[in-house]
Each structure stands twice: as C-alpha cells, then as structure tokens.
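Q: I'm writing a short explainer about Dyp-type peroxidase family for a general audience and would like to include a description of its predicted shape. Could you first generate the structure from this sequence?
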Amino acid sequence: MKDEIFFEFDDLQAILRFGHGKLTDTCFLLLNVADVAAARQWLSAAPVTRAVTAQPQPETALQIAFSVEGLRALEMKESIIKGFSDEFISGMSGDESRSRRLGDVGSNAPEHWDWGGEPGRAPHVLLLLYAGKGGIEFWKKTVMDPLFSKAFRQLHILPTDDIGSIEPFGFADGLSQPAIDWQYLQSTDLHERDSFSNWVAPGEFVLGYPNEYGLYTSRPLIDPRIDRLAARLPNAAEDPSFKDLGRNGSYLVIRQLHQDVPGFWQFVDRMTGSDPEKREQLAARMVGRQRSGSPLAPLAARDIPGILQKDRDNHFTYELDPRGYRCPLGAHLRRVNPRTGDFPTRVTGLVSRLLKTFGFGLKRPDEDLIASTRFHRLLRRGRPYGPLLSPEDAVKPDAPAAERGLQFISLGASISRQFEFVQNAWSMSSTFGGVQQERDPLIGIRQPLRHGEATDFFNQTDPKGPMQKTCCLPQFVTVRGGGYFFMPGLRALQYIAAAPMTEGD
Ligand code: HEM
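A: Of course. Here's the predicted structure. Afterward I'll give you a sentence or two in plain language.
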C-alpha cells in the first residue's frame, strides 16, 4: 500500500468514478470554439460534475473533454501540447497506419465518417450532458446559456437513446468494468499477479498516478518558474518541482459505431435454419454471454454468498474453458478482456516460471499468445442510440432499417496500450488466441488479409467432433465517427480556461 496516495475526488470529473447509470437521458455535443475569450469565460465557471459521493445523488451531470485541436484553439502553447501522448496529438483519424490498425478501412475509413474523419480538424470540445428521465431539455437550456452560445459553435449532436441496460443487438451491457483500486491495496508487482484480478491500479485510468507497471503515462508537466499560471496545478508525482496538467484527468476515446441490427439477426437466423433456440445460441456464442448477461464461461467455482446477480455474472475467467468449448476462443467478450494473469494458468513454481519466461515448454497456443490483461483494461462509458428493435422483429424480412448503434466511450491513461491495443491486437486480429481466419464476430471488419486469407469465419471448437465453422460473416458494425480527447481534472480545466502567457513568459 502506498500511504502517500489519496485521491482528491473533487478534482476528478465524476465519469471517471461513476457511470451516471441512473441518469438515463443524455445529450452528447461536439463543439468548436467560436470566440476564445467567451469560451474561456464559460469554461472557467462551467458546472462540471465532480467525482465526490453526494447525498442525494445529483439529478444532472456535465463532463467535458478537449481534442488537441480544441486545446490549440484555446491557445495552449505547443511546448505544453507536446507533453501529451503521441496518439492523442495525432488523433484517431490522423494517420493511415493507425486507421489500418484500428480496422478503419473500407466502409469504416475516416473519409466516410459523419464527423471526426478529417485529419487535423477534429471537433474541439466534447460535452457530455446527463439528466434523469425527462430532464435533459431543461439541463441543456441551463448549461447552454447566452455566453455558451457566443463561445461555441455546435457541430453535431451525437444521437443517444435510453433503451434500458442493453445494447442495440439486444444483449445486456455494462456488466463488466474494471474495479479501480483507489487505495492501492493490491500489489502491482509481477511476482504477485499470476492470475487475473479485476482490481486495477488507478494510474491505468487517472493520469498522474502509478499504473500497473508502477510508472506514469504521458501528459504535460509544466515548470511553474516558466509558466506562473501553472502554480495552482497539482504537483507532478515523479518530480514535485513540476506541475502536472494531466493529474486527475484521463484520455477519452469516443467512436460512433453503427449497428446493423436486422443484418445481425437475419444472418444468425439463416445460419441456424430459423430455429429460435439455435439462433439464440449462435448469437450468444459470438458475444460470449447470453442476452440476459449470463456468461458462457463457467462461473468461478468458489461462489461468494450474498453477491449481487450483476457481480455474479462477472465472476469468471476462461481458466475452466481453455479450449473454448463453452465460450468460443474468438467471441467478442473473450477478445476484449481475456481475463488472463501474468502467467498462463498452469505456470506455478519457480522452475515453471523460468521455463515460461524463456519461452520453453509451451503446449497450447493460447498459453503464449494473449498478453496479460491488467495492462489493457478499458473503463467503458458508452451509450446506445436508435429505436429499439427486438431480435424477434429483427429477423423478419421487413424489419425496419434505422440508424442504431453505440456511442462507444472508453477512458484510460494510455490510448495506445488500452483502446488501440484491444481494438488492434485482440478484436481485429485474425490470429488472436490461436484462432484462424476470423476477427471479432461483432465489431470485426471482414476484409481478407493482404495475401488473400479470409477473415470472415466464426469458429467454434466442439469436444465431440471437428471445429464448427460459420462462414461469410457480413460486417455488422460500421464506424460513423470518432476522436481522441483529453478530459482534464478540475484544476487543469481552470488552467485551460485561463489566458496563456506568451511563450517563455
Ligand atoms: C457496437 C459495438 C459493440 C457492441 C455491440 C458490443 C457489445 C458488448 C456486449 C454485449 C458486452 C457484454 C457486456 C459486459 O460484459 O459488460 C461487451 C463487453 C465489452 N466490450 Fe463490447 N461491444 C461493442 C464494441 C466494443 C469495442 C469497440 C470495444 C473495445 C475496443 C469493446 C470492449 C468491450 C469490453 C472491454 C467489454 C467487457 C468485457 C469483459 O470485461 O468481460 N466493445 N460488449
């Protein structure tokens, strides 16, 4: 335990700690700065919701984040901007090789996006507004006062809809989240983390704190002797003679993901000869959970008395299902969080560790191919959009097509090691965990590899016989927009809102 670390929750934006689940109505806005002075004035008094536990719980919430273009529009000095991570500065759509790695090719390519696809021209500000049932219009009017209207130009209102606690394909969502170990009770030492734990060091999500490596991720550190405005920022933990613009903030990734709900259900219906039971089973196997949220992987043997159903449904790893007989190896859930520890399951004891460390004695492909999960967790805060369409209606040939999907949002202290890694090395990979010719059955693209090998299969191992292959999956999810943002702590927001001094002041 690191005694010196305690969290100033009143300096963190609430969304880092709470999902605002009870605030069912939302409005996500993309803005550009229209008048710098007015924007600064509005930001300095913005009613941003903090991560404190309040009773009664707030009836509304406001969170705010900036793209690198937004920080530049607010005249942040380049000498400070260069302290942010490379991928934040480059942006989600700013580099062809990044787009390729994220699967943003073909119909997913940034040139087809509704927003955020023009390199170097990302929306400046992302504003997330939350309210209880029926309360969002009033909250919008309160937040978007005359000064706001002078300060910002509204580019897009990202659609969001309350369809309950499911995502548009109809599966229970928001069940699994990493638990942030705010008090650093769990060791991050390599030798003590053989097996999966859902507890993760705060520095994986909150900038300026030690992460699972015991290190800090990129964010600007400012010398207060050169920049007097920085004096009120928190000290940098690594070097208290510097001020930390990132501390208590986070990087926010947002992607608008269109879901072809009739396309998904009609495909699984066709593949299962329109047998409703088999259809449910195939769909669940592609996700890794039943529609109700029950996991396909066996729950951990040791049950905890009094545990909530939601937590019970999350109390599993894939140790009891190493060959994917229950939950296929390529299922969405298994890819985005393989729940691995630092060493494969059967590696215990010094000799076994040494053999593994030097790469000897591997018997199964999945023993070596999946990186330790604790370095690649995502805090998900997305919301769905579009009209509800039940699977039973979606299979009908005249099922209404509509814009439906997910405003996928994830928070983390390293965009490249968390969101980009999960998206690229796990979801889009056609060799994840020893699988072949397939990518994520839900969110994967289906383009063949460069040498022509197909990637549009979904394979299920079968203890009773040969692999069951489902071929020619269409692409069910298409990217409509996206961007990388910095969500500052409250003191950092004041720094951003203050007029900067000239370079070298
Ligand atoms: C429209 C696109 C998507 C759909 C329909 C979808 C659907 C789901 C569903 C139904 C679950 C199970 C609920 C839960 O465990 O909380 C889930 C879990 C999850 N998804 Fe997705 N997802 C989508 C996109 C993504 C993307 C783009 C990522 C990351 C790159 C991602 C990462 C995760 C993670 C980390 C989990 C939790 C897994 C676990 O901890 O066991 N998802 N998703």
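A: For your explainer, you could say: Residues 299 and 316 are 5 Å apart (CA to CA).
Q: Perfect, that's easy to follow.
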